[in-house]
Amino acid sequence: MAGFLEYTSIDTFPRKARILYDQHHHRIRQRVPPSQLLEYRMGEGWGPICDFLEKSQPNVPFLELNDAEALRKRVDRKVRRRLALAASVLAPWILGICTILVALRVSFF
Predict the structure, then answer these.
(1) Model confidence pLDDT, tens digit, residues 63-92
(2) What is the DSSP track for the chain?
(3) Are 42 and 48 in contact (CB under 8 A)?
(4) Using CA atoms, how far apart are residues 85 and 51, in angstroms rounded to an integer?
(5) Is the overall model pTM greater than 0.70, yes or no?
(6) CA-to-CA distance for 69 and 19, rounded, in angstroms?
């Protein structure tokens, strides 16, 4: 990845990545006719998409999946589920090892 973005240190990575991103979008704008290119900004809703496709707007709310708070909640739920799964797998092993150590009278302290 470092070769692709041509950055020399972690400090230059964001700037180089942004330059590459901007160059990519500039090339797209040069090659695609404006009538065939939709430049959509998150949060604009159905309007620009439906206008571009010459379709009427649906009677359902536009999904806001990039909402930071909603994303944080989804990640939190996923992390909790994964931790609960890990605990359910590890708990019997830990309990078994502790039982064996107690039976062998191994001191923990």
Answers:
(1) 766 677 877 888 899 999 999 999 999 999
(2) -HHHHT-SSTTTHHHHHHHHHHHHHHHHHHHS-GGG-----TT--HHHHHHHHT-PPPSSPPP-TT-HHHHHHHHHHHHHHHHHHHHHHHHHHHHHHHHHHHHTT----
(3) no
(4) 46
(5) no
(6) 29
